[in-house]
Design goal:
Radius of gyration: 32 Å
Largest sheet: 9 strands, mixed
Helix content: 10-25%
Mean pLDDT: 77
Structural class: alpha+beta
Number of helices: 10
Oligomer: single chain
């Protein structure tokens, strides 16, 4: 049996501000209706389910019935300015079109450059052949090599990069990083070298017995990451191993059962590398390319044994180092500098930045579920990211344990998935022309600092950085993890173990390890600065909005005791629901003497908890069926005395793992470009999933000073996190002091502070500020002098324009948690100093 639901949707009353235009004395107003009156705006405070009329707001004041939202006066010019801004943006569209055509020409020019580079590469190959002939001159007696072996071994230990922490446990303090190579891989060594190989092999046969007597271990397959070969141990001169090149194709060195050193021509990625065994019984000479120049080196039997030992250790690294290094293109280090000029509030109240240096002309457009759009940064190795498993041990050392594609890579159990990219150097500059310049490069440069994402606790530096790919979820082991295909962790009346707050996180993270924490300012700062470089706009809403305006709750439009896997809604309601998004289904409940529908209560989720919308189909002329990924259910109401508790469907956060539905590592899972900014879809940026509909609590705190300023501190040492922090708290970095205009309301940001790679509001709420000005994000401050507040980033389902890259909600104490509050794992709170 089914009956048409006769409930009026307005029974729920306003659940958000409801604009009603100019105040009219004869109009009935209810709770949360907003009106304009004599240049100001006001929200109605009438009791729930009651209305008022003929009670006008008092100009510039809060009264029993009306609360002032904006002061009277000055609005006309602002609205004119907003209109002009829209017109200007329309003009900019045409300008942008011309810029695209210009960019196309630049691409063609770049292709010509590539052709020239190929010609240069061929010339380098010819030079490599010439260099090869000098290799034989390095060969000397085995006895001399043996004498030099110890010194060579020391040099190996001094120069081989401890890319894998396991290597550092077995080989003393490898200090130099994987040698920087250039974009061109090792060029083809001429096949004419075969004759030389045969000659050396003949002499090598004579030395087999000597090598065996010396205890030479048979050399198995020595794998090295990267396309460059193992650096050299020079003979009598004692020349050290110059480099173990990254991105090396697997070079197989085999010693036959009879001990005869045979050199196998190994072809990988089109590069044939021939290892030469010298007549003195030394290990093989490999061609090493640096900008096309081959370095021929000798490996003594002692050095070879050490390399074998090192490789045995490296094999325990679990990650396929070759895959990892190839993805980063570590042989393609660059001296390029990528910059973006950010406008100051006093210069222009717009958000458009200027791409400069080698960043000029690069285009990044977010992709959708259907279209992989242009993103020039995807082709730049130093901007690429990959997915890995990683940990931070109790010594504060970050370790990569597997790379996606390896057999050992995992997205479940006790594993965490991180986005891994190439470490970078950065610099902030005041240009003196009303712009701040942020610059990034990938090799040391005067005035630039290595971003602290690369650091370990002991001060050693990694060639990579790690940021959790997913918001926090509960893993199979009951602990919080970064994993796909799970519901975000958040607090409800039925999931207290998933409470995410700054205070709760301290206990959660101790269960994970000594140096785990919530996302730090370093994690969020990478997202901010990379976003500015790629998209060139401090107003992130211009590019993607995330799931920040999708807070609906609908009563079943048809009440039925039949079981279905769909929820019935009206046609107009259906237009607010996106296929692929997530909802909960349950019943209203009684709070005191009134019906309530707060998502915190488990009854809102009792039928279906955060399930996927599969499709939407027509039921009849007035209703549509929203099919859900859940068991069949009825939409019959429940009885509570004389009150009917209706069946309702509530929008919820997206689950992790949606990135698989996006055509690229930056974009949203929407079917059209319009969905990128309709506030209903989450974001994947550089492989990082974000803005799924939950706030992310950032590790740190806000403290209110005696003059009402809000001081923002970010956690830098996970072991120093406390529940009652003070000003200048140990283990924390001061990021900003925010000057607030209005308390307990959203204040739109006017000035940003640049500290330690993180951009934080410095002032907000000033005259002229708004969602279309500057970064367009807002800060919500509250609290009295001496009180601390939680740092909530990015936004959630409801707050729309206030949300974005620089949004901060400072309205709750450090232990507050709720259904709309989540977090992200971090391994980056390993800095000894704030």
């Amino acid at each position: 049996m089914q009956t048409e639901n006769t409930y009026v949707e307005t029974d729920l009353g306003n659940i958000a501000l409801n604009p009603r235009g100019e105040y009219d004395a004869e109009t009935l107003y209810e709770y949360l209706d907003t009106v304009s009156y004599r240049g100001g705006s006001y929200v109605c405070l009438a009791e729930l389910s009651k209305t008022i009329n003929n009670i006008a707001p008092e100009e510039g004041k809060n009264t029993e019935h009306w609360q002032m939202l904006t002061l009277p006066g000055g609005l006309t010019s602002d609205y004119i300015a907003m209109h002009d801004d829209v017109v200007n943006k329309a003009k900019q569209v045409e300008t942008s079109r011309a810029a695209v055509e210009l960019s196309q020409q630049e691409v063609e020019d770049a292709q010509a450059d590539v052709s020239q580079m190929r010609q240069d590469t061929q010339e380098a190959a010819e030079e490599a052949a010439s260099s090869r002939d000098s290799a034989a001159g390095y060969a000397q007696s085995a006895e001399t090599s043996r004498t030099a072996a110890k010194e060579s071994e020391d040099n190996i230990n001094a120069q081989v990069v401890g890319f894998d922490a396991h290597v550092t446990e077995k080989i003393s303090a490898a200090e130099s990083a994987i040698t920087e190579a250039r974009q061109t891989a090792v060029n083809t060594v001429s096949v004419k070298q075969d004759d030389a190989v045969q000659t050396v092999t003949g002499e090598g046969n004579k030395q087999v017995k000597n090598v065996g007597d010396a205890g030479t271990e048979q050399v198995g397959k020595v794998k090295s990451a990267g396309t460059s070969a193992v650096s050299a141990v020079n003979t009598a001169s004692g020349t050290a191993v110059d480099a173990v090149k990254a991105q090396q194709t697997a070079s197989t060195k085999a010693v036959t059962d009879e001990g005869v050193k045979q050199v196998t021509a190994v072809k990988a990625a089109g590069t044939a590398q021939v290892n030469t065994v010298n007549s003195a019984g030394k290990a093989q000479i490999e061609a090493v390319g640096d900008v096309g120049k081959t370095q021929s080196v000798n490996i003594t039997e002692s050095a070879a044994k050490e390399l074998i030992k090192m490789q045995n250790i490296t094999s325990k690294f679990e990650a396929n180092a070759n895959n990892l290094l190839a993805m980063f293109g570590l042989l393609a280090y660059t001296d390029k500098v990528y910059s973006v000029d950010i406008p100051l509030w006093e210069t222009t109240q717009g958000g458009t930045c200027i791409k400069s240096d080698d960043n000029a002309g690069l285009v990044a457009l977010p992709s959708t579920a259907v279209e992989h759009r242009q993103n020039d940064y995807e082709e730049l190795p130093w901007f690429k990211t990959i997915d890995v498993n990683a940990v931070v041990d109790d010594n504060g050392i970050k370790k990569i344990t597997a790379v996606k594609g390896d057999n050992d890579f995992s997205e479940s159990g006790s594993a965490d998935v991180f986005v891994c990219g190439l470490a970078f150097y950065e610099k902030w500059s005041d240009l003196g022309n009303g712009y701040m310049r942020y610059s990034r490069c990938f090799t040391p440069r005067e005035g630039y600092e290595l971003n602290k994402l690369a650091y370990n606790l002991d001060g050693t530096k990694n060639p990579f950085f790690l940021i959790a790919k997913y918001p926090l979820v509960t893993g199979d082991d009951g602990l919080l993890h970064s994993q796909p295909n799970k519901r975000c962790a958040f607090r409800t009346s039925d999931s207290t173990t998933e409470a995410i707050s700054m205070n709760d996180s301290i206990a959660h993270m101790k269960k994970r390890g000594k140096y785990y924490s919530l996302a730090t300012f370093l994690d969020n700062g990478y997202i901010q600065t990379t976003w500015l470089l790629m998209f060139g706009d401090i107003n992130s809403d211009e590019t993607m909005t995330g799931c920040t305006g999708n807070s609906f709750q609908f009563v079943a439009s048809i009440e039925s005791d039949e079981l279905h896997t769909y929820f019935p809604v009206t046609n107009s309601q259906a237009s607010s629901i996106e296929i692929g998004s997530y909802v909960s289904v349950g019943h209203e409940y009684m709070s005191d003497s009134s019906r309530s529908n707060d998502r915190y209560d488990k009854r809102i989720h009792e039928i279906a908890f955060d399930v996927k919308v599969l499709k939407i189909e027509t039921l009849d002329d007035n209703n549509k069926a929203v099919y859900l990924d859940c068991d069949a259910f009825s939409t019959v109401h429940q009885e509570f005395g004389d009150t009917q508790l209706r069946c309702i469907m509530s929008s919820m956060h997206w689950r992790t793992g949606f990135n698989k539905d996006v055509k690229g590592r930056t974009g949203s899972p929407c079917p059209t470009v319009a969905g990128l900014t309709n506030r209903r879809y989450p974001i994947i940026f550089q492989g990082i999933e974000m803005q799924l509909g939950v706030y992310e609590v950032m590790a740190g705190f806000d403290i209110v000073t005696s003059d009402g300023t809000h001081e923002i501190y970010g956690l830098s040492d996970a072991t120093k996190a406390v529940t009652n922090p003070k000003q200048s708290q140990a283990g924390h970095t001061k990021l900003s002091s925010i000057t607030i205009t209005n308390k307990s309301v959203w204040n739109y940001i006017t000035h940003l502070n640049f500290e330690s790679g993180y951009l934080c509001a410095a002032s907000c709420g000033e005259s002229g500020s708004g969602s279309s000005k500057g970064c367009g994000d807002a800060v919500y401050p509250s609290g009295n002098a001496g009180e601390t507040r939680e740092l909530r980033s990015f936004g959630y389902l409801w707050h729309r324009d206030a949300c974005g890259l620089f949004c901060l909600y400072l309205g709750s104490w450090l232990g507050y948690c709720g259904w709309y509050i989540g977090g992200r794992l971090s391994v980056n709170a390993v800095l000894q100093e704030g």
